User: Which sequence fits this backbone?
């Protein structure tokens, strides 16, 4: 461990907190994708002033991309002056909506009691700020170095990452020979290395009926009642079956070491845009359900889908006039990077040096942009490591600890040092 790196981070702790505050004050809420461009431009200006070549890249054609809400990404690169590997720090700049229950302004970036509060503080603007400070500390100690360092701020991770890392990965930004190692500072705790994630299948199920007057429902066929039968079958059959499936993956929290299914949304009958006023009396001719199925490395994606389809087909045979349509929205296979790959090895050594203990290796319950680095960039030396407590993400009064960010920055700076100079 180069003690100069630790001191260089310590000298920048106030700057680290201020940078996190600045990032939170960009209300990059997704959906719809607000303030992406000014946030990306802010990051680009900061890094350009420190010798990085910066590019703003729009995720054209991605879901949600439009002139009003462009999917703007920033990629910054600094060459070291002699041959060597490239280490890339990737963070998403989008955040979920603030929601209710806050006791302070979610986009003010309030600093209090050693914490920075705000939407995205934990997930993951604190991690982005920590990675920037880590790189700047490294450059202060090692102005010349082998290889190159990259930092990116990308769009849309909260909605799948298609306008961000997926778009860039398809263009070669996360592939060799451009990039060799990737660290994603997601909030998995400062002494944990996240090797991967469970799989995910999102799908929309639509049941169909026949519209009729609500006073004579026997003349119609309610799609909502058909969907009720689907939900009842899920409760009686599918949920208990999933709960019995366990994994060898070290998923956190422990409850997520089982297969899970979440009902994301359900919409049937008329929309709620009749206010002010009253709805008209109709039998619902359509009902749509969005499911979020998280599955394990031991499960096959075809099996995961067949469990749901088998229930729907059985209802179709047994329930008069039952009909349905199912549409895939997204599918991602589970993944788990090997512990002895270069990035987790470097991070583990840095965690031992900074904290004096062994790292904990974990798997995320939900997917993040590592999936695109692996499947589109075909780059497997990628893990998540960053400050913050995952349980605070997406909740009211979200916060990140300043000391946690500083210690994570030290780990990232030391890991960067190890990855670049090990090959020298």
Assistant:
């Amino acid at each position: 461990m180069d003690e100069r790196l630790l001191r260089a981070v310590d000298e920048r702790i106030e700057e680290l907190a201020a940078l996190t505050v600045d990032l939170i004050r960009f209300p990059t809420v997704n959906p719809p994708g607000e303030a992406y461009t000014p946030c990306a431009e802010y990051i680009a200006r900061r890094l350009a002033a420190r010798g990085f070549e910066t590019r703003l890249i729009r995720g054209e054609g991605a879901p949600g991309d439009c002139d009003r809400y462009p999917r703007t990404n920033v990629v910054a690169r600094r060459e070291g002056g002699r041959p060597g590997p490239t280490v890339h720090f990737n963070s998403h700049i989008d955040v979920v909506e603030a929601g209710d229950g806050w006791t302070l302004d979610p986009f003010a970036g309030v600093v209090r009691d050693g914490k920075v509060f705000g939407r995205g503080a934990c997930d993951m603007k604190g991690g982005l700020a920590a990675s920037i400070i880590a790189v700047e500390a490294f450059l202060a100690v090692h102005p010349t170095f082998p290889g190159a360092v990259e930092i990116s701020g990308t769009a849309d991770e909260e909605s799948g990452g298609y306008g961000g890392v997926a778009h860039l990965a398809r263009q070669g930004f996360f592939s060799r020979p451009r990039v060799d190692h990737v660290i994603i500072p997601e909030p998995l705790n400062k002494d944990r290395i996240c090797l991967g994630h469970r799989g995910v299948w999102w799908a929309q199920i639509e049941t169909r009926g026949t519209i009729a007057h609500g006073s004579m429902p026997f003349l119609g066929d309610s799609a909502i009642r058909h969907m009720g039968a689907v939900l009842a079958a899920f409760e009686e059959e599918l949920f208990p079956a999933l709960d019995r499936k366990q994994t060898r993956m070290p998923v956190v929290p422990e409850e997520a070491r089982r297969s899970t299914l979440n009902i994301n949304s359900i919409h049937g009958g008329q929309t709620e845009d009749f206010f002010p006023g009253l709805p008209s009396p109709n039998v619902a001719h359509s009902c749509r359900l969005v499911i979020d199925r998280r599955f394990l490395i031991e499960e096959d994606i075809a099996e995961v889908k067949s469990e749901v389809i088998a229930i729907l087909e059985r209802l179709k045979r047994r329930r008069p006039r039952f009909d349905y349509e199912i549409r895939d929205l997204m599918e991602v296979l589970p993944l788990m990077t090997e512990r002895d790959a270069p990035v987790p090895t470097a991070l583990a050594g840095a965690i031992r040096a900074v904290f004096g203990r062994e790292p904990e290796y974990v798997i995320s319950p939900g997917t993040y942009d590592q999936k695109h680095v692996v499947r589109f960039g075909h780059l497997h030396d990628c893990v998540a490591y960053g400050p913050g407590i995952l349980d605070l993400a997406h909740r009211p009064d979200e916060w990140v600890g300043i000391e946690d960010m500083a210690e994570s920055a030290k780990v990232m700076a030391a890991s960067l040092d190890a990855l670049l100079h090990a090959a020298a």
About this structure: The radius of gyration is 24 Å. The chain has two domains: 3-197+334-422, 199-332. The first strand starts at residue 53 and ends at 58.
